[in-house]
Specification:
This protein is of the alpha+beta class and 106 residues long. The chain has one domain. It is 22% helix and 21% strand. It has 2 helices and 6 strands; from the N terminus they run ββααββββ. Strands 1-2 form a two-stranded antiparallel sheet. It is extended. It starts with 6 loop residues before the first strand and ends with a strand. One of its GO terms (molecular function) is iron ion binding.
Length: 106
Amino acid sequence: MAAVHDVMVGEKHVPKGTTGMVNMWAITHDEKVYNEAKEFKTPFGAGRRVCPGKAMDLAFVHLWLAQLLHNFKWVPFDDSPVDLDECLMLSVEMKKPLLCKVVART
């Protein structure tokens, strides 16, 4: 995702066009959350040794998404048509970002 206009996040200035990415490494290496953050632990595993919490975790993701949809309206940023063309970067990404506004529901 990219900033569609200059914005202040706390005391930090984020210029228009700045690309934001989720740092999955930092999320999964937070010692306040994970006691053994520096140890390699596969997320779910597979086969006979699949994680017993996998179903609960996937249900949690659905709940989290439901809360985002319930608490916020996701509306188009402007009247531009949606372009679903893709390009290969670190993963397959949209050539043109899908811009939206997130508005808290009252």
